[in-house]
Amino acid sequence: MSESKKVLVAEDSSVIINLTKNVLLFENFHITAVKNGQQVLDKLAKEDFDLILMDINMPVMDGIACTKAIRKLPDDKKSGIPIIAITGNYKNFTLDDFKKAGLDDYVQKPLDYDLLLSTVKKHIFK
């Protein structure tokens, strides 16, 4: 059996974190959850992940600012990690806005968990 892929979930809603964990754990992903962008950077400094699910609207540091900071990291593996935006405010952004910020893809809220899972798999197993 292959080693489970590590997904970092950055989301300030405990409900969404728990639902996302349940969906991804069922598919044998290892999940770590944090509540803001600064915690993402702190975790990324200590561990490697295969993908980040990034809420756009979070306290302390939002998903856009956090993604830009990740893309500037000196470690090529960490700066190149696939990042998928999770957002309820997708109408405020275009896919082009997300791409310019360094995000690879997005899934809108309320989350369609089949779409979330297929999007995660698309970026982890490419």
From TrEMBL:
Residues 6-124 form the Response regulatory domain. One of its GO terms (biological process) is phosphorelay signal transduction system. Keywords: Phosphoprotein, Two-component regulatory system. Pfam families: Response_reg. The modification 4-aspartylphosphate is found at residue 55. It comes from the Bacteria. The keyword Transmembrane does not apply. InterPro entries: CheY-like_superfamily, Sig_transdc_resp-reg_receiver. This is Response regulator receiver domain-containing protein. It comes from Cyclobacterium lianum.
